[in-house]
UniProtKB/TrEMBL annotation, chains A, B:
Organism taxonomic ancestry: Bacteria, Pseudomonadati, Pseudomonadota, Alphaproteobacteria, Hyphomicrobiales
Keyword Transcription regulation assigned: yes
UniProt record similarity statement: In the C-terminal section; belongs to the class-I pyridoxal-phosphate-dependent aminotransferase family.
HTH gntR-type domain mapped to chain residues: 1-62
Name of the molecule in the record: Transcriptional regulator, GntR family
Length: 452, 452
């Protein structure tokens, strides 16, 4: 009974769907068929399932328990579950060291620019402070983004840009727009772990392609597209999360050609774009925002507290997305949030801050590589920028076990398999070079040693 | 071909579902069967549908066009479509008069408190300004809400409260949590129009119950619950939108008893609670947050620009909702937004502002009733507070036609059927007393006269 309830909560069994036959389920659970018959009868008495004589048992409509995302992942692996890492990172005690988290420490951020922006907003018109704002969001910020896109080679007018409540919400809106339950979505392996959690909430099938230092493996990509006909491909451009890989022009062209042939939409998340010394090849630029949608946010470079994201896409898609965002959020990004973001980005200090930050991160990257090298922990590739290093542990050490051990010592790690759809990264971890401190190295050393 | 494409975009035809038979569809469309055969063959050639020999045609997987919410509504009635009114209200030219819109004019809002809050935030810790914050959102704001709920008779600790990006997003999260496509949801008729748009996006069936001045009609409510077994009932408490009705204790008790018997969850949206002179009966208070979820936001009383909403619910539900919000929004409400809201609510001026606002609205309500009375436009009931009046037009005048006419004169009205699931309010409209100006009365007069 518990197992069927779990499947209903995870929506792996949906209303109207047939339950496994008594015999098959008895085999699966290692119990006798009469036990299954009794369990099914009781579930039917509770109204959760219905029996159709001569046909079997079916999940009843309108009685599904609340959706439990956690139930969708295998229970035994709860500690390498993407949601677990997200919740740990967000709710960690302030004293926890977080080399596994995906953002910069608070004192690395351009807080003075944000403070000036808040004071500027305090003098804004009543309407900016109190009204919902237009359905696409702040025009000045969209115009700013349009200019920034132009510098990356993406021609998108302000009317082709939709502001959203966050980068994650931008992707969520696109999933609602393009997907239905049961569709297939292609991800990189490894990829940003919350892509998996988000796609679970949309109840789609996830297929992944091994990532190389120059983008997705082209042959595997072609094979996956042909075999699974995915509706979407979601990827990080600029500095790939977690690997730090840079898309090569050849791979970009190959990916676009394959996507176009199969009518597969590409969502390119450029959230790390400002960390690049100069723009790398962009799918959205090569494609001209035809079958590629560009999303992003300001959480990594400006503030994760002031939530604001964006979508740049074809005008007809933007129009449909506006309807969806009105229905599900009533309006676009907060005008106050967009106002703060625009004021801070336009602040004379922002460009200088980013340039100093890139230099600081480059130094930290070098130091971190040296410190990890002393523990035989080696980077998979050398990222052109950003704060993440995708690292291999020495001789088959298990990153999940290491993470469990380190957490007891107040250090939050991000074990490789959290990022890997196919669970092919048991001995990898993502390290945030800006969150490295001497104590982290000491805890890593002790954790690795305890294993031997 | 267009009609099948439309059904696919509206998701009224989903992957794997059988298309109407050739004969039935020919009858529906008033064309010959051979025309339908040709259309189906062409759609099959495009890959949108597949033929299964001997069985018929089926919608193909992975080829659905992007979800078009607008297509879900009947095309001919686009101007009484909820999304149309929302988009018009949000994107209206600043000179448009908006008695049809659902919020106060900018200069009626407590903007000075928001300005002081912004300046206070400019002095906050770096972490508040730059980090994502915890998964439930700002603790001080949740503690403030817990105290406010206690005053309404709802016992909810801060850990039972989840902050969200907006009130709409709170409901959206609950829909994801409780519903699957095909479930049934119960609404009031009339009700806040965006409930319909939001539920469309979740592809659920909507059933409605006529509203009375003391809440939903008890007999119709009982019949609807028994006949349709809805999973959710979504309603506005305090001051009902659009009618201004107040739930009576008897009706509240009846509704709770019926809901409990059928395992139906109630979502009570208390967004207008602060407009009440003193708290009216609350479902969440009577029920003790067992099968009732309380949601709300600060958009109507503080600022619609600083987006922040909340959910108060059972601890086990909050836990599942946290996972869902991490997956779909990565974190809770913006800490900066929650900080502004908390600072403004705690500002000594807020309570005085609300008390003055209630008095000002009461005066405006009286004036508006008099001015509309001269045009034979009469309120359906006398609301205890708030800014909405649900009004009947004289001798069967059509509100949709009136709205179309008035828009040409720069006045945005909210025709009754936008709020009515069953389209039973053709001669009703919602009037925002705070947005009434002499020109609105003049335009209404001219529009009514032109009809004669």
């Amino acid at each position: 009974m518990d197992e069927i309830r779990r499947r209903l909560a995870a929506r792996s069994l949906v209303a109207g769907e047939k339950l496994p036959s008594v015999r098959a389920f008895a085999r699966t659970m290692g119990v006798s068929p009469s036990t299954v018959v009794e369990a099914y009868d009781r579930l039917a008495a509770e109204g959760l399932i219905r029996s159709r004589p001569g046909s079997g048992f079916y999940a009843a409509a309108g009685t599904a328990p609340p959706l439990a995302l956690a139930e969708i992942a295998p229970r035994a692996e709860r500690d390498i579950d993407p949601l677990w890492v997200s919740r740990q990172s967000l709710d960690a005690h302030p004293d926890t060291l977080r080399p596994g988290c995906g953002w910069l420490p608070a004192d690395w951020m351009p807080n003075e620019a944000v403070r000036r922006a808040l004071r500027k907003l305090a003098r804004a018109d009543d309407a900016v402070l109190s009204d919902y704002g237009g359905t696409r969001g702040s025009l000045p910020l969209r115009q700013h983004l349009a200019r920034q896109f132009a510098a990356e080679g993406i021609a998108a007018g302000a009317e082709q840009i939709l502001l959203t409540g966050s980068g994650t919400q931008a992707l969520d809106l696109l999933c609602r727009f393009f997907l239905q339950p049961g569709d297939t979505v292609l991800l990189d392996d490894p990829c940003y772990f919350n892509f998996q959690a988000l796609l679970r909430a949309h109840r789609v099938r996830i297929v992944s392609v091994p990532h190389t230092p120059s983008g997705p493996d082209p042959a595997a990509f072609a094979a996956a597209v042909a075999a699974h006909r995915p509706r979407l491909y979601v990827t990080n451009s600029a500095i790939h999360n977690p690997t730090g890989a840079t898309l090569s022009p050849q791979t970009a062209h190959r990916v676009l050609t394959l996507a176009a042939a199969q009518d597969m939409v590409i969502v390119e998340d450029g959230i790390f774009a400002d960390f690049e010394p100069e723009p790398s090849p962009r799918l959205a630029a090569l494609d001209g925002l035809d079958g590629v949608v560009r999303i992003g946010s300001f959480s990594k470079t400006l503030s994760a507290s002031v939530r604001c994201g964006y979508i740049a896409a074809r005008p007809d898609w933007i129009d449909g997305l506006v309807d969806l965002q009105v229905a599900t959020h009533f309006g676009s990004a907060s005008p106050v949030a967009a106002g703060i973001v625009h004021a801070a980005l336009s602040d004379g200090s922002y460009r200088k801050h980013m340039s100093a930050l890139r230099a600081r991160l480059a130094r930290r990257q070098k130091q971190t590589i040296a410190a990890l090298g002393a523990l035989d922990i080696t980077p998979w590739t050398l990222p052109r920028g950003g704060f993440a290093l995708w690292c291999r542990l020495p001789d088959g050490a298990d990153a999940t076990e290491l993470a469990r051990h380190a957490l007891r010592d107040g250090v939050l790690l991000a074990p490789g398999n959290v990022f890997s759809v196919a669970r092919t990264a048991p001995d990898m971890m993502r390290v945030n070079v800006a969150q490295m401190e001497d104590k982290v190295i000491a805890v890593l050393k002790a954790s690795l040693a305890s294993r031997r």
